[in-house]
Amino acid sequence: MKRIALVLLAFVLVSCAHKPQKISYSGITQGSYFSITYYDEEGRTFEAAFDSIFREVDNSVSLWNENSIIRKVNRNEDVVVNQIFKDNFEWARKASEFSDGAFDATIGPLVSAWGFHYKKELEMTPEMVDSIRQLVDYRKIEIVDDKVVKANPNMTLDFNAVAQGYTTDIIGTFLETKGIYNYLVDVGGEIFAKGTKPNGELWTIGIEKPAENFDSERSVQIKIQLKDKGIVTSGNYRKYIEKDGVRYSHSIDPRTGYPVEQNLLSATVIADNASWADCLATICMLVGKGKASKLLEDQGVEAYFIFVEDGVIHSEWWGH
C-alpha cells in the first residue's frame, strides 16, 4: 500500500509540475502599448528577449528613433538595411500592388503637408497637392544590394501601417521557437491569438466601438473568439483634423493626394497573420466598404465593418 501511495503521490507531483503557468508581460513600445500573455509548463519568462525584439524593430523602422535605419534612409544617408527593414518594405510593396496603389509607404510628404496646413489654418491648393504627389509613388523606390534606391532623393518611407502587426508576428514566432503554442500578443492593437487557454477556452478579443471624439472613453462594440489568427482594426474616428466644423480623415489617398471621403468608420480584418491583417485594415479604410469587399474576396480573410448610412451607425460581418 505504501508503494502505491508513493507512486500516486509522485504522479500528483509530476502532474502539478507540468501544469501550464500563465505568464504576462506588458509595457510601452513604438509609441503605444504592448501586452503578451502565454502559457508555459516551465514557467519561463522572456522579458529580456521581448525587449530586445522591440529594440531591433525600433532601431530599424521607427520614425520616432532619430538613429533608426528608416530615418537614415529618409535623410539619404549611406546605410545598409537589415532583414527587419526588408520585411516591412516587402509587406508594404505587396499591399501597394494588391490595392493598386491605395496603400503606399511613400505617403509621408502628403500626410505631413495636410496635417501641417490644417493645423496652421492654411489652404492646400491643387497646385500644392500635385507638386507633393511627385514624391509619392511606391514604384519609384526599391532595395538594391541591401540599399534603398530612390527616383527622387526627397522621397521618404513610412511603415507605420505594417510595423506593429509585423512586431506582433515576430514576437509570436519567437514564442513558438521556445515550444510555446498558446499565446496572445497585442502590440498597439495589432493582435495574434495562438492556440487556446489550458481549459480549451478560445481567446476573447474586443472590437472597439467608434468614438464620437478622439478623446472619448473607449468601449467595446462586439467581442469575438479567436484561434490561430491575426486581427487588426483600423479606424478614422480618433484620427482626424477638424476645420470649420468639417472632419478630414487622417487617411490620404496617394492616388489623388486628398483625404478620403467615405462612410466607413472602422474596418477589422482577421487574417492568417497580423502583418497582412494590418495592411488590409488600412486598405479598407482607404478604399471604402464597397471596394474593400471586392478586394478581400480571394484573400481567405474575414472583416467586420462599422459604417454610417443615412446618419445611422451600422455594422456588418464580411466573409464570416
List the helices and strands and how they pair.
Elements: H1 2-17, E1 21-29, E2 32-40, H2 47-61, H3 69-74, H4 83-98, H5 108-119, H6 126-133, E3 141-144, E4 147-150, H7 163-177, E5 183-187, E6 190-194, E7 203-208, E8 220-226, E9 229-235, E10 240-243, E11 246-249, E12 252-253, E13 258-259, E14 264-271, H8 274-295, E15 302-309, E16 312-318
Antiparallel strand pairs: 1-2, 2-5, 3-4, 5-6, 6-9, 7-8, 9-14, 10-11, 12-13, 14-15, 15-16
Helix pairs in contact: 2-7, 4-8, 7-8
Q: What does this 3D model show about the protein?
A:
The chain has 320 residues and is α+β, with helices and mostly antiparallel strands. Helices cover 34% and strands 28% of the residues. The protein has eight helices and 16 strands. The strands form five sheets. It has an eight-stranded antiparallel sheet with strand order 1-2-5-6-9-14-15-16. A hairpin with a 2-residue loop joins strand 3 and strand 4. Helix 2 runs antiparallel to helix 7, helix 4 runs parallel beside helix 8 and helix 7 crosses helix 8. The protein is globular and about 65 Å long. The N and C termini lie far apart (57 Å). The N terminus is likely disordered.
Q: Biggest sheet, strands in spatial order?
A: 1-2-5-6-9-14-15-16
Please work out how many helical segments DSSP would assign: 8
* H/E series: HEEHHHHHEEHEEEEEEEEEEHEE
- How would you name the oligomeric state of the polypeptide chains in this document? single chain
**Low-confidence residue ranges:** 1-15
Condensed summary:
With 320 residues, the protein is of the alpha+beta class. The protein has 8 helices and 16 strands. The N terminus is likely disordered.
